[in-house]
Amino acid sequence: MKEKFIKSTLILVIGGFFTKLLGMIIKIIMTRYLGDDGIGMYMMILPTFTLLICLSQFGMPIAFSKLVAEDKFDNKRLFSSIIPISFIINLILIILIIFSSKFLSYNLLNNKKLYYSIICMALVVPFTTISSICRSYFFGIQRMLPHVISNILEDLFRLLIMIFGLKYFLKYDISIVLSFLILINIISEVISTFVLVIFLPNKFSLKSIIKRPSKIYINKLMYIGFYNTITRLIGSIGYFFEPIILTNFLILNGFSNSYIIREYGIISGYVMPLLLMPSFFSVAISQALLPVVSHEYSIGNMKSLTKKIKFAVFISTSIGIFFTTLFMIFPSVLLKLIYNTNSGVLYVKVLAPFLLIHYMEAPLVVCLDAMGLGKINMKIIFISTISKTILLFIFSYLKLGLWSLVFSTGINIIISVFLCIKKVRQALLSYCSTKFI
What we know:
mainly alpha
């Protein structure tokens, strides 16, 4: 089991590196074609897109992966049980998006040009759900190569379509350009799903998985998925309201809309992607950790489980120290090299130390999910999201401009990571005498 965990981690880290590299190239092309204002508008709708994806999946990928990893259930029956749930959820969501898109763009985001891109999101969400479910099966059986290959091909096709498409669509209004960027995801998700289906075992034919859904399996999937969805939903809602709070409150305090869009674009489009770039290491470790913790927790092997959690947190933190040092010493060089801009240097210097702490959060969150403690994750994200929202209001009221977002983000990271460490330690100490430091 240990060798399989290390192998899975290495595959995911290597794959994550190439995926992150492609993602970085995609971001570079977007920033250079769209400029600060275009990126600002794109980053304004991204929280909405994230929220809709969270709702469409309803925590099913995590639930499916956990149940497959426990190796106590009929995987084909799990497939047949998860499909109708996802279909109903996505159908309801598509209808809601279509009817609420005008209100979201005109009233909440205060930008009519975002209307069509929100409509386009309704077309994308079902495809992201299907690919996520297929991917979660391979996580459950600890076969990480299909996931890596599908991710790389997905980003590669997204990059190629963007290179050839942006030149053409830039002749039109920015609303058309943003809609194009959203719709690209349909093609990339279809390619990803197709690759994953190729890697499915021969026993997983279409005929073999068309079975009567199991009520027991549906209940288990819904129970795990519910808490995971509420957890992600709380975070996504906080992220969704972030630009709304900033835009409306800062305008009331005398800041211009153009200033807010430009600075928000710099923080969300340049600074945060740069600082979060190394997070693919901790995400890869977390993805490899989920099936291992699920299996060992289900059989009560707490000693081995504790060692793996310590190892995951140690590696994530060590990698974070290296990259945080780079960000602190060479912020202007990295911003110029990657995004061809010097905007946001001071933001990088202030946020970098907080992101060092953030790198250890992903393995801890996954451990709580894998141990069936999704309810605790929900409470943690609720506390941290409420804290960040309150801080956004306070700092915006103090007329700190976009520093309101910077300071509230940093404090929010400290709160959420501290709570994760505390709850994981409590969970482990309640089952064994081994201390988690």
